[in-house]
Amino acid sequence: MALIMKYIDSISRYMDSHSDSRTKGWPMMSSPFPTLAVCLTYVYLVKVLGPRLMENRKPLNLQNTLVMYNAIQVVFSAWLFYEIGISGWLTGHYSFRCQPVDYSNNPRTLRMVHACWWYYFSKFTEFMDTIFFVLRKKSSQVTTLHVIHHGCMPMSVWFGVKFTPGGHSTFFGLLNTFVHIVMYTYYMFSAMGPQYQKYLWWKKYLTTLQMVQFILIMVHAFQLLFIDCNYPKAFVWWIGMHAVMFFFLFNEFYKAAYRSRMMKKNGALANGHAKPNGYCKSINAHDDLAMPQTTEATATATATPASKANGSSTPLSNGHANGVENVYKQVANGSAHKGANGGLSNGYATKLLDDASHELKQRKTPK
């Protein structure tokens, strides 16, 4: 144990000798190990301890808490975006091609250094995203991607604040805080209830926005490998590879969450299976009679279990009508739905019965 502590102390002293003196003595900046300990505790809490504690408990209703939390995150992210932007990127003082770290005590430079530390702090507040998932028993949301992303970010940003608080790498923070403004705005409205769902049609574009963010970070970082710029190459690789890793992780998530869902949807439509939606469409008896006749036995054999269970009088979705006998039988048995869902009202059902009977007699009468 003493040997381990000695090793840790030597690492801390080495880092202090090469770190930015302006952040010396700031909270969590003396050594990487407190940050590492918090990150590991987070992973253990959301993957092991939290699910175990919630296993036999009901999910917590945190609607009001979530709305407030996400609103705070929107404001916090907007403030960070403003601070990072006003300290260089949005005022023309920073170059998108090459921006070395300014280690002076210029007020604008110190403002950027403080913004970097607060950006580092924000990575801890984002742990609450996952903790809320656990408390609400949304285990499907606690994915490997989600935990890796949140668990790695504080450690990654710590190195930036410790050694290069400012300069080229802060472009990462500028983009990331903008994305978080959009992301937490979505989460806030989503937490407000179902009545706001119609305004959230742009959900799938959040993942696309994340991936565009990482592409821009990759290009912005790796360009320094081909030009002469007084910026540490180690941090170029650190930031660039970080963006590469998360781009592919988010890309896999996008394909799994959206493309496969669209394929399943298209496959269901192509197969023509009736969906058990619990209501029946209004049908035109004359249109059905114009289609090729299908016997009751054939209709029963080809109908899906869902179409039997929901009492629907909708024709088979492959385009073949059940036939007049089937319509006659369903209406007579009262299986047609009533109401505004497109079902058959009582008056219309009676009329349909008469029309169907008349058409059937005409078809069966030899010419």
TrEMBL record:
<keyword id="KW-1133">Transmembrane helix</keyword>
<keyword id="KW-0443">Lipid metabolism</keyword>
<keyword id="KW-0812">Transmembrane</keyword>
<keyword id="KW-0444">Lipid biosynthesis</keyword>
<keyword id="KW-0808">Transferase</keyword>
<dbReference type="GO" id="GO:0030148">
    <property type="term" value="P:sphingolipid biosynthetic process"/>
</dbReference>
<feature type="transmembrane region" description="Helical">
    <location>
        <begin position="142"/>
        <end position="161"/>
    </location>
</feature>
<dbReference type="InterPro" id="IPR002076">
    <property type="entry name" value="ELO_fam"/>
</dbReference>
<dbReference type="GO" id="GO:0019367">
    <property type="term" value="P:fatty acid elongation, saturated fatty acid"/>
</dbReference>
<feature type="compositionally biased region" description="Polar residues">
    <location>
        <begin position="310"/>
        <end position="320"/>
    </location>
</feature>
<dbReference type="Pfam" id="PF01151">
    <property type="entry name" value="ELO"/>
</dbReference>
<keyword id="KW-0276">Fatty acid metabolism</keyword>
<dbReference type="GO" id="GO:0009922">
    <property type="term" value="F:fatty acid elongase activity"/>
</dbReference>
<dbReference type="GO" id="GO:0034626">
    <property type="term" value="P:fatty acid elongation, polyunsaturated fatty acid"/>
</dbReference>
<feature type="transmembrane region" description="Helical">
    <location>
        <begin position="66"/>
        <end position="82"/>
    </location>
</feature>
<comment type="similarity">
    <text>Belongs to the ELO family.</text>
</comment>
<keyword id="KW-0275">Fatty acid biosynthesis</keyword>
<feature type="transmembrane region" description="Helical">
    <location>
        <begin position="173"/>
        <end position="193"/>
    </location>
</feature>
<feature type="transmembrane region" description="Helical">
    <location>
        <begin position="117"/>
        <end position="135"/>
    </location>
</feature>
<feature type="transmembrane region" description="Helical">
    <location>
        <begin position="25"/>
        <end position="45"/>
    </location>
</feature>
<feature type="transmembrane region" description="Helical">
    <location>
        <begin position="235"/>
        <end position="254"/>
    </location>
</feature>
<keyword id="KW-0472">Membrane</keyword>
<dbReference type="GO" id="GO:0005789">
    <property type="term" value="C:endoplasmic reticulum membrane"/>
</dbReference>
<feature type="compositionally biased region" description="Low complexity">
    <location>
        <begin position="295"/>
        <end position="309"/>
    </location>
</feature>
<feature type="transmembrane region" description="Helical">
    <location>
        <begin position="205"/>
        <end position="223"/>
    </location>
</feature>
<dbReference type="GO" id="GO:0042761">
    <property type="term" value="P:very long-chain fatty acid biosynthetic process"/>
</dbReference>
<dbReference type="GO" id="GO:0034625">
    <property type="term" value="P:fatty acid elongation, monounsaturated fatty acid"/>
</dbReference>
<feature type="region of interest" description="Disordered">
    <location>
        <begin position="295"/>
        <end position="322"/>
    </location>
</feature>
<protein>
    <recommendedName>
        <fullName>Elongation of very long chain fatty acids protein</fullName>
        <ecNumber>2.3.1.199</ecNumber>
    </recommendedName>
</protein>
